[in-house]
Write a structure and sequence with these properties.
It is built from 28 helices and 26 strands. By secondary structure, the protein is of the alpha+beta class. The protein folds into 5 domains: 67 residues, no CATH class; 103 residues, Nucleic acid-binding proteins (OB fold (Dihydrolipoamide Acetyltransferase, E2P)), CATH 2.40.50.140; 263 residues, no CATH class; 35 residues, no CATH class; 247 residues, 4-Layer Sandwich (Metallo-beta-lactamase, Chain A). The strands form 5 sheets. The protein has an 8-stranded mixed β-sheet. Strands 18-19-20-21-22-23-24 form a 7-stranded mixed β-sheet. Strands 1-3-4-6-5 form a 5-stranded mixed beta barrel. The longest helix has 26 residues.
Length: 756
Amino acid sequence: MILFALFFLLGDVYLQSFSHLPSMLCVLIPLPIFIAWIFLKKYFHYSYVLLALSLGFAWSAWYAHTLLAWSLPTELEGKPILVTGLIASLPITNKEETTFEFELSHHHLVRLVWHDCPALHVGDKWQLMVRLKRFHATQNQGEFDFEAWAIQKKLRATGTVIISEKNKFISHKPYRYFINQLRQNLLQKILLQLPGTNTSAWLITLILGEHSNMPQTDWDVLRNTGTNHLMAIAGLHIGLLASYVRYSVAKIWRYFPYLVLRLPAALAGTVAALIAACLYSALAGFSLPTQRACLMLIVFSLGILRKRKINIWHSWALALLIVLIWNPLSILTESFCLSFFTIALIIYGMSGRLTEKGIWWKWGRMQWVIGWGLIPLSLALFQQASFISLIANCIAIPWMGFLILPFCIFAIIFLWVMPFVAHWFLNLADKSLSYLWYFLSSLSQLKIAVWHQAMPNHTLLFISIIGFLLLLLPAGLPGRFLSVIWIAPLIFYKPTKPILGDFTLNVLDVGQGLAVVVQTNRHTLLYDTGPKYRDHFDMGESIVLPYLYSIGVKKIDKLVISHGDLDHIGGAQAILKQLPVKSVMTSVPEALPTISAQYCLSGYTWQWDEVTFTFLYPTPEKLHLKNDSSCVLKIENAKQSILLTGDIEKSAEKDLVTRVPEKLSAAILVAPHHGSKTSGLAAFISRVHPQWVIYATGYRNRYHFPHASIVNAYQQIQAIQLNTVATGTIQFNLQKDKNAVQPELYRVVHKHYWFD
């Protein structure tokens, strides 16, 4: 069972490495292998692993083909469309904006946003006028992949509901998405009783698994302390609930001889625990961690009911296999990796001991195993690992298990019969959670809390995992000392940097905005920080920082904020909070009141590692012109030069052509104002005469950047034009002894079959 499940997983993983889906005929691959296995199984016991590998590949391919069979036609993107369908998920409201999943009449899911909408209920059938677009997300190294997340969630498009007289409620389907209907009903009851504190929203997460509107600062606390799992309903929560129910039911059952004679108390407790665990998983929407926990619990419960001892590894493997059969694309999620790897670590680290130890040794050992064993995976997924997770979890897990979760469970029960009692329990849970949150917040502020380290490839990840597995071997077994050798490459890994005189240009894909990272041999410059969309979401936090960590950057030598527009300065505070920044230069120091920033005035120049940096604009009298005050920075070595222009428009371009025409020539130009028609002065284009022009824009942005006239203007001089929306991150390696340059495009190098 274990080998079969692992090779089924490998077949699934192998398909995800394809840049294009293989032909549907590949689903027939297992057939000849099955026939061969029938003849070989007598002579080669492990021949079934090839069958498992082919089945995993074929099943995943069939599933992916089925999902990708329908895509929104390109010609319909952005156009008003009348659709009919069902509300399939909990509608989540943030201020005046409600987000929900909508099942179209042909059973495909789209994600919709509706402003100022009426009350929406899961299972409602609506006719809506919408504007849709394909699910196209930013693509950068180190970033969470929303396109992979969307495909495994079966989401095929996203869009907004348009105000229209044709929007109308049709009917309610009480048996469609019944579990989500139950969850929404419970959510409405909880909101009526929930205390209005900063931590109370997490109680909804602990009861329903819903955390869409949580601020980024809260997630930072959890990530820095290694306690993310506390706020995601998973094996810990389900296991605790099952334990409580099993003990309570068995205890009460023994007081009734009539019941005991017909079913032993231990078995009655086991059945009740299984039912409670399944109900709790349903409240969490049967998320992937709850699926895994429930499946393992079912296997163990069946073993108890049949009076058979179940090998825990077989239980783990069976849960893995069922989850992959249910949704083979779940392996694209961080949740899948963390969920199954964590349980495998616990089994590996806690079994095989010669003597039984006390409960506190077991508890401490488990935290030790998880804390150390998850370091490689945490670095690969989040570019950071917590050094204080052992301390945090030793306190937080029992606190959660005994002082918060029981109150939440009692609140669920009493919400239906005695709401005022539920209110009391929710207040107790919230008060207890506030104390725990204060403890975690204090820990997260420690300088030693987090280790940021680049995990550049799967080879180093594999080597690191082996090292930590050796470290966690039982005491006395030979080979533990070898863990130092296997872990050393991770500790001493240093990312490749340009040699003296060379530099790299990285234009990040931050949607409708700009963020550029320039690296020399010993220095890093960040030009703009991407946009900010909401109070708790900006591209500095979600894209720029993960990218910097992934390439091994732990400090910024100079941060340049071209001007004060939110699509350029939006991520600045997140950057300044998380990374040491030696100096800041901008045209709007007043927009950054918490730091000492200098003006980026024309003529200011410096040199790093034989690479020269010069501000060409603005002059002092041009500092209050908004877009036309943007910092214009030229970077050059012996052979190559680039020009970063912010959002300057024709007035600033004219000034540059008049004052410093001889300094404008550049091989690479980041197009002024994202290619707006308010820029692109003919004389400016002629003077710069770039070989490459880069546009930083959002997918189907409302400004329609870049404008056709600008594209045509650069075509006239035969410049090669690239757009981050189509390429993801654009990287140039500019060498001091080579004239030719060739970019590396993230969407090309890391192409997946689910990309458009």
